[in-house]
TrEMBL record:
Sequence ranges of Acidic residues compositional bias: 620-633
Annotated spans, Disordered: 601-633
Amino acid composition bias (Basic and acidic residues), ranges on this chain: 601-619
PROSITE patterns named among the record's database cross-references: HSP70_1, HSP70_2
Family statement: Belongs to the heat shock protein 70 family.
Main location: plastid
Organism: Dictyopteris divaricata
Lineage: Eukaryota, Sar, Stramenopiles, Ochrophyta, PX clade
GO molecular function: ATP binding; ATP-dependent protein folding chaperone; unfolded protein binding
A GO cellular component entry from the record: chloroplast
Transmembrane parts of this sequence: none
Protein name: Chaperone protein DnaK
Amino acid sequence: MNNEESYLKIFGIDLGTTNSVMAIVEVGQPVVVSNAEGFRTTPSVVAYTKNKDALVGQVAKRQSVLNPENTFSSIKRFMGAKYSELSLEAKEVSYKVTGDDRDNIKVVCSNLDRLFSPEEISSQILRKLTNDVSLYMGQQINQAVITVPAYFNDAQRQATRDAGRIAGLEVKRIINEPTAASLAYGLEKKDDEVVLIFDLGGGTFDVSILEVGDGVFEVLSTSGDTKLGGDDFDRKIVNFILKNFKEKENIDLTGDPQALQRLTEAAEKAKIELSNLSETTISLPFITAGSDGPKHIEETLSRVKFEKLSEDLINRCRLPVESAIKDAKIDRNAINELVLVGGSTRIPAVQNLVSTIVNKDANQSVNPDEVVAIGAAVQGGVLAGEVKNILLLDVTPLSLGVETVGSLMTIMIPRNTTIPVKKSEIFSTAQDNQNSVDVEVLQGERKLSKDNKKLGNFRLEGIESASRGVPQIEVTFEIDANGILSVTGKDKKTGKQQRISIQNPSNLNKEDVEQMIKEAEESALADQQKKDKIDLKNQADLLCYQTEKQLKELDIKDTNTVTKINSLIANLRESIQNDGFDNDSIKSMMQELQQTLQTLLKDENTTPNSENEKTNKENSDDDNVIDTNFTEE
Ligand code: ADP
Ligand code: MG
């Protein structure tokens, strides 16, 4: 084996709300890998057809108009969230979102008559990317680095990890998207620079300020909005058109999923065009029918109007930038580079806004669609030992702490602290003769503990009776390089201690995940079996055809054997008509047919016609074969 290639390959995945991108280090350099269809980005869309086939990526996106309820896009918005936490706006998708008895989110797939968790839908995207990268590399790759928005909490990160596991991936590391972007960006950089990464994608917004230099990336601060992205801009245009249509035709299209889907696609197209043009038209013939015949949408939209419609969205980009600058404790003039990431940063008004705040033009040398995946691949290369001289310092995205008297959150590790990190603090009892304390571990920025996320808890018992405030309980928070938090409580007097490791704050419990992995593997197996069956059916069919052809071409005296062959053919043909046929019995029938034919040919002292080779090839695309490939179109 070539030494150069003997590294264990770990590829990078930018698992985006709208689009996903994959990259891998090849001969020391990160490269974006095209999917099987030949595109560098893959729409993060999964669909199930009436025939119960799963479609992923471009094929899924393309049929979304006809099958909106079974087409799952923007699933990332639901990852690791609870149903009761969802805003009305978040539920504005073409498919049905519901909650189960544990308040976990499920999406409804009517074509399969079942529910899916967001993790399962995501796993379909990851599975496709994994298959495609393996195809490209000519070897099975099953280790990956996956990126997530900086503001993802532990449940969301864990959900992403679970999606990877369901897809059969070993997720080596979850890293922040802006960190990945800076990692890709900083590769060629040598001097110390302060970089502001502004990432506005389809569904999320992240701002990060980093210090980059000498192969070290240090995140100074992060901020953002998990519910702001290009989808919101699309929705502004959609609502504008809906309103105009209602006024003009007195027809409300909001209840018509097909019309809405078409409108959403047209709105996105118009938005993209307005990044380069000052005016565009949205034209949707036959959008619906009124009592007086078909209705059409024909609207002109100017960039100025679009900017008016989306003014509040543009303004919402301002605050996170300001707070990131404040958290980094730097002057805005100290920012050396402005890096734009994500498709929505191509909107001129967005570029203007950020350039004005930072007082700097954006650096254009980074491809905004690919930079995150490139960074993830670099991190993969670092973990595999293929890329050297890079030390990545990551930070905690949210503050971590414990609940103290009055149900308040006391912060142990503030957000934006570089990890790995270890911090201890002494607490005491709140009442006289209190023999135990409950340590409740929290994550978030809110003052009251109930407003933050509970990550876990434990009870430290056996504290010797004493007046309140006397016992000394040392609480230690430790986060390792993988971002896994462990919390220890120790009674200084007795030395008794309790420890919890918080690494599975996932919505899905272990059994759920294992069940989903099993199902995914089974369905992969079932797909393979289906394919094997179709292949076998084709082979059998071809054999029957060729044998008949050969019989016809030969002048045969042994009519007994011919009769036998014909009956074997008839049997075989009939057997493969039944979809539930047994592979082995088909194989043995084929073998018998072949052997009988061979005997006949030997007896007749004839050699097989050389024409047959050709016939064989010509027939390799008969009806059945085309049928097999149809789903891959
Ligand atoms: P994500 O990281 O969320 O998957 P991307 O970075 O792929 O998102 O960005 C997708 C978003 O960018 C979509 O909302 C898309 O409409 C938008 N977008 C892509 N190109 C342009 C453009 N030229 N002008 C405006 N928006 C664009
Ligand atoms: Mg992105």
